[in-house]
Amino acid sequence: MTTNTKVLFKSIPEGAANLANFEVVSEPFNIQTAAAALQPNSVLIKVTWLSVDPYMRGRMRKPEVASYSAAFTLGQPFMGHGVGIVVKSTSEKFAEGDVVLGILPWGNYVSVPEAAITRKINTADAPDLPHETYLGLLGMPSFTAYAGLVVLGKPKAGETLFVSAAAGAVGQVVGQIGKRFGLRVVGSCGTDEKVDHLVNRLGFDAAFNYNKHPIREKLAELCPNGIDIYFENVGGETLEAVLTLMNVHGRIPVCGMISQYDGAGYGVKNLFSVISKRITLQGFLVSDFYADHHDAFLKWMFEHGLDGTFFYEQTVANGIENVPAAFIGMMDGKNIGKQLIKL
Amino acid sequence: MTTNTKVLFKSIPEGAANLANFEVVSEPFNIQTAAAALQPNSVLIKVTWLSVDPYMRGRMRKPEVASYSAAFTLGQPFMGHGVGIVVKSTSEKFAEGDVVLGILPWGNYVSVPEAAITRKINTADAPDLPHETYLGLLGMPSFTAYAGLVVLGKPKAGETLFVSAAAGAVGQVVGQIGKRFGLRVVGSCGTDEKVDHLVNRLGFDAAFNYNKHPIREKLAELCPNGIDIYFENVGGETLEAVLTLMNVHGRIPVCGMISQYDGAGYGVKNLFSVISKRITLQGFLVSDFYADHHDAFLKWMFEHGLDGTFFYEQTVANGIENVPAAFIGMMDGKNIGKQLIKL
């Protein structure tokens, strides 16, 4: 008999999430009993790594409030990207001992339908790769960067890429992928330290602090040949400024509009540019891309992202009981780089 | 010796175009001399039909004013879609006697490089079809409708299509193509007569007069299952209303934003929907589609558009000297349906 600890969604936060919104419960757990009770086409998993990500705050809401992701269920475990080992399988797709990546409930042992599993990762592709890399450099934020920039942005060497929120988990990877596609990469962010980080560590061609410079003028200066791809994370005035500088047949993958989440809604006045420049503006969620593009993403990253030249930081917390604190710390910006939890 | 009459761009209109902006000049013309002087890879054409279209007003401007199409050159002939017979060819692609469709100068006899020719139309595809049909039902406005709705809109039977400016040259065809793809088709327009026309002659499922009804409420009533494809012709408040009703993975081909041409720029406040609903908003110009999609368009129209069930009206004026009056009349809304000129 062992112990299974789970983290449940206890209450809906008003404003910032806090520890009272999480409930950590431990109960005795018998693996044989759980294995015997496993539903058809399912797997029982011993979870080894979990990822916490800012989008989860958006799922901590009432279910009747519409959003692009489903609300977490009160009284049930949180869920998120995780890695684990299959200890029992009734699925033809997975066998005991497989290491798998999926959307997993926050618990030491979890039973999930096979559809919750994104992929088996103990393949011959990269046998020496630590499993948590699939939640870090190869995780969801990096796949988001790839899906938006490569699949939707269709980069061509010599083009100019602008990415807003460039020092964020997605933006950092967007810029680094962009450089490897031969793009001129320009980023915006909110502090001088981040500007330095983007240019001197990540290899951006240029970056600027939007709190110090008028966006339109600074962008025009840093993008003398216009903008071919705008990886959109912020919306509002930045989008309006970018539209004045986009080139014909420009692409705008829309990953986020963080300036617009409060619902105030900045009125973008120059959408006519979308016709005059034949621009494609395309909202996307990374979850739509796993089926068709995750293999290609991993292949590209194995070739270009694992040679040590790709900058990626992560912070590891230990123990499932520390997931709530790690999540709250991440939302407060206390972590450096990607926040992971080792179970 | 015969006479060649041409229509030249004489002056830039302020406001509406008028006869003083056009100059009709006639000069003696020797076909043999013109044929002998033909440049390499060119064709000398006897023009038989010309099309006048509203977009041409946008080309009657100073060249330094940026737009999506090139300005006409003062003192030179206007140009537009036309049909003619090749009387001399130095091109390997076209032979004497070929009937061709292209962007032709307004004149009885014109010499153009082979690149100006869109296609040879005296094929076996539809031998009995009057040549002017390639400027009418099979012309640029219909191809615009097809490119936006079929190529970009990717319609699936059962989906809901909304088209604004639905009684216009493009909108009418959008709706009729949409019906043949099994869509629920809803249109907006500016008079009750047009509403009647859309529903009772063109087969729209529903239509409304935007001068009489609040757009958002009326659209919600007429599109109870939301909107999957919005064929955008007007922009501004209509786009904002549509964004509130778009379904997940909705497509918005942007053909025009007629409410925004004056540059005032209505601020669209709910662009966040582009992410939450994973919407693709795509500005396009039909000229980008000829190379890859014109064959498929003609094939589709031969199969579905020429059986007599497709509603299409046209008005024919006679003689090249009447092109300016036909253009001005069209801009004043005096024509019924597509305005063509027979030379």
What does this structure look like?
The structure is a homodimer of 343-residue chains. Chain A has 343 residues and is of the alpha/beta class. Chain A has two domains: 2-136 and 313-342, Quinone Oxidoreductase, Chain A, domain 1; 140-287, NAD(P)-binding Rossmann-like Domain (Rossmann fold). In chain A, 26% of the residues lie in helices and 28% in strands. Chain A has ten helices and 15 strands. The first copy, chain A, has helices at 31-36, 55-59, 140-152, 169-180, 192-200, 215-222, 237-245, 273-276, 290-304, 323-331; strands spanning 2-9, 22-29, 42-51, 79-89, 99-105, 109-113, 117-120, 160-163, 184-189, 206-209, 227-231, 246-254, 280-283, 314-318, 338-342. In chain A, strands 3, 4, 5, 6, 7, 14 and 15 form a seven-stranded mixed beta sheet that branches. In chain A, strands 10-9-8-11-12-13 form a six-stranded parallel beta sheet, with helices on both faces. In chain A, α3 crosses α4 (169-180) and α6 packs parallel to α7 (237-245). Chain A starts with a strand and ends with a strand. The model of chain A has no long low-confidence stretch (mean pLDDT 93). β13 of chain A pairs antiparallel with β13 (280-283) of chain B, so a sheet runs across the interface. Chains A, B: GO terms for molecular function: oxidoreductase activity, acting on the CH-CH group of donors, NAD or NADP as acceptor. Chains A, B: Residues 17-341 form the Enoyl reductase (ER) domain. Chains A, B: It comes from Physocladia obscura. Chains A, B: This is Enoyl reductase (ER) domain-containing protein. Chains A, B: InterPro entries: ADH-like_C, ADH_N_2, ER, GroES-like_sf, MDR_fam, NAD(P)-bd_dom_sf.
